[in-house]
Amino acid sequence: YGKNTIKFLRLHKEGKKHFVKEVEVCTHLRLTSAQEYLDGNNSLVIPTDTIKNIVLVLAKKNGIPTLEQFAIDICKHFMTTFCQVAYVKTYVQEVPWQRLHENGVPHIHSFICVPDGIRFCEAEQCRNGPLIVFAGIKDLKLMKTTQSGFEGFYKNEHTTLPERHDRILCGELFCKWSYGECKDFDFDCIWYIKIRECILEAFSGPPDCGEYSLSYQKTVNSIQMLVLSKVSQVQVIEVVLNNTFYNVVDMKNLGLTNDKEVLVPVEAPYGSCACTLARKKFLEA
pTM of the predicted model, to two decimals? Predict the structure, then answer.
């Protein structure tokens, strides 16, 4: 049991310069006894309002240096404070505020919400067990207008989809990875400089020519393989790509030739590709 959607803004000031983190937190506990379920005995139950207040107090006292560190702080607090807690899991996601720039100059206290994906993390721990950290990005919308196709697929009497060697590849990406046992990682650096760049590079290819995608599935795998090859801290990575398809508008009746210049999105149904990869040593462990 626990408390969902604890939303708040943490404002940090350094002189005249302000920093913000707006987050949504979900924290759930499993107790050493199930007596509250079996007998209606609530003597060990930590009220969800108390859970909410603890999260807010930790934000006030510790700040939010990174999403991952804040999730770790929450887990550690419940494990060290309440002996009746057998398991704790915390999910934290961030509202994508970015500092506003005017003529290239960063503003000291103004921000803009940029919808380029929502960063999130999870931390979980069993009593006497390791603290495990996950991180990820969701609702990241990506598109490339060429260098994508889908050919040679299985066909039978129900197949109506034509083969395509030049199409728009567009989708909404969900990516979640595991760091394994908690260590002193620079989580922000790993995300912004390494994993984010791997995702964008594998999806798009070189900036001057791109890279051909044989399928949504191959693109998903390319993202995972590049992350695992370049980011040693990642042990397991899950990628889900929800596809957005576009159909070329037939303008013959309007006396126009439409050479893939005007297209409309197919709202539903849409495809989805998902895959999880792990390092061999992680699976063996």
Answer: 0.90
